[in-house]
Amino acid sequence: MSLFRRWRPRHLLLAWCAYWVGLILVTLWPAIAAGWRMSQQTDGHGSVNASMTNGILTANIIDSGRTAWTGSISFLSLVLLVTVPPLLLWLVWLTGASRTNNAERVPLKNRATPAGLNAPEPRIGITDTTTSKRRAREES
User: Fold this and answer.
1) Chain centroid, CA 128 distance in Å
2) pTM for this model (two decimals)
3) Per-residue pLDDT tens for 5-44?
4) Dist. CA 49–CA 59, nearest whole Å
């Protein structure tokens, strides 16, 4: 896909975050609205409950004795819903992204020029000042 060729890791992270925020808003919007209505009432009594039993996550909102919202999902479904789409997006990005992402636009730093490779003066008078143990034994 040509869209993913220009993506960098930060674009992938932003796409994941957008997915997770969208997932929360789409799936929990009725619960958020019911909780908001319940919190704005001054004379009402309500409760919010969440529990996990036998791998099923269940939550409900009770407002003034009536159930305003209830929902349940298996833990496995929740984990798959949260992780599989970002993983697939990462795999598509990984296979479609160019290895030299925008390399032609990035100038090379510390690039040696042909003139810089040739030394202007010969190195005269440089001697090896390191002494090895073997050389020290031979000289003594």
Assistant:
1) 52
2) 0.61
3) 777 888 889 999 999 999 999 999 999 998 888 888 878 7
4) 5
Residues 46 and 38: beta-carbon distance below 8 Å = yes
User: In whole angstroms, what is the distance from residue 100 CA to residue 132 CA?
Assistant: 45
Q: Answer yes or no: are the C-beta atoms of 35 and 41 closer than 8 Å.
A: no
pLDDT in tens, 71-122: 999 999 999 999 999 999 999 888 876 665 555 555 556 555 555 556 566 6
Task: Give the Cα separation of 134 and 140 in Å (integer).
Answer: 10
Tokens of 38: 């319940």
Its sign, for the CA torsion 50, 67, 37, 71, is positive
Residue with tokens 């930060």: 10
